[in-house]
Design brief:
It contains nine helices and no strands. The chain is an all-alpha fold. Helix 7 (about 115-135) packs parallel to helix 9. It is globular, with a radius of gyration of 15 Å.
Length: about 160
């Protein structure tokens, strides 16, 4: 049995007082849960999605340490090994760990999306990033038209930003 509480507290400790990153992953987590509920995701897929939402940006800290910046491809490269070390202690099975790590390793890749968990993670991250990065109305419209696929995600995006 997975322990989401343990994962969240481990991520908070891992982020070592970086309130911005903790707030970010908690917001992405909440939007992911909301979209999953609206889309009727099954429990197993939702467990994977929730773990991925909490850990999706786990590579940022090491990217800053190694490269002095944290672009999407570097996050996708550096994040999965860190998550792979953390997830088993929180009760995630090898198969769940593999999928969560796959999602972390692709959460800035918007092509060849291969599952509801992947699509919802992208949408939840965008819902937070739109606000945090101050995207323009035009940019939000492009995101809606080109990235968002779920009915629930589109409704949240429209209600919040359009």
């Amino acid at each position: 049995m997975t322990n989401l509480y343990t994962l969240i507290t481990k991520m908070m400790a891992y982020e070592d007082g970086c309130v911005e990153r903790v707030n970010h992953f908690l917001k992405v987590f909440a939007f992911a849960q909301t979209i999953a509920a609206g889309e009727g995701l099954d429990r197993e897929t939702q467990d994977i999605l929730e773990a991925a939402a909490v850990t999706h940006d786990i590579g940022i800290r090491v990217c800053f340490e190694k490269y002095g910046q944290c672009d999407g491809p570097k996050q996708e490269q550096e994040g999965p090994p860190i998550a792979a070390a953390m997830l088993p202690a929180c009760g995630y099975t090898p198969a769940q760990c593999a999928r969560v790590c796959y999602l972390i390793g692709h959460h800035h890749t918007y092509t060849d999306v291969d599952g509801a968990d992947y699509q919802i993670l992208i949408e939840a991250d965008f819902l937070v990033n739109i606000f945090e990065n101050g995207l323009t109305h035009e940019a939000v419209t492009k995101v809606r038209d080109n990235i968002f696929k779920t009915k629930t995600g589109k409704k949240l995006l429209t209600d919040l930003y359009l």
